[in-house]
Amino acid sequence: MATAEPKATPITVSELAKHDGSDPSLPIYVAIKGDVFDVSKNTASYGPGAGYNVFAGKDSSKALGMSSLKPEDCVGDYSGLTEKQMETLNQWHEFFSKRYNIVGKVVPDN
């Protein structure tokens, strides 16, 4: 499935948190390695109460690399991942890139 040209729009961590599926008027975002993906078309997986909702509204790079669904692992800092976990993380990023539009880049809150 073709996706739109990636956007580099800055999205702060606190703005990203609002896109966790709890507000039906906002799209659902999942960030991986700083890239923010719009996963709204897949609410069955990422919407409230869904299995992967834990990833919504945050950069979940570490958790994806570790194949973890633990909320405490859903953080953007993946510097401690092993080589094998980095491969897994890169595979997830590639998977998302083929299916979802990149709508921005995560930036720290000011």
Order of helices and strands: EHEEHHHE
CATH top level class name: Alpha Beta
Distance between the termini: 36 Å
C-alpha-based Rg, rounded: 13 Å
The percent of residues in helical segments reads 25-40%
Number of helices: 4
Strands in their spatial order, largest beta sheet = 1-4-3-2
Average residue-wise pLDDT: 95
Low-confidence stretches: none
The geometry reads as globular
| Portion in strands | 15-25%
Q: What fold name goes in the CATH topology slot?
A: Flavocytochrome B2, Chain A, domain 1
**Name of the CATH architecture:** Roll
E-strand count: 4
Number of domains: 1
CATH superfamily: Cytochrome b5-like heme/steroid binding domain
Overall structural class, as computed from helix and strand content, comes to: alpha+beta
How is the main sheet built?
A: 4 strands, mixed
Note down, in words, how this protein is organized.
- The chain has about 110 residues and is of the alpha+beta class.
- The protein has a single domain (about 10-105), classed as Flavocytochrome B2, Chain A, domain 1.
- It is built from four helices and four strands.
- Strand 2 (about 30) and strand 3 (about 35-40) form a beta hairpin.
- The chain is globular and about 40 Å long.
- The model has no long low-confidence stretch (mean pLDDT about 95).
Core attributes:
globular; 110 residues; 4 strands; Flavocytochrome B2, Chain A, domain 1; alpha+beta; 29% helix; four-stranded mixed β-sheet
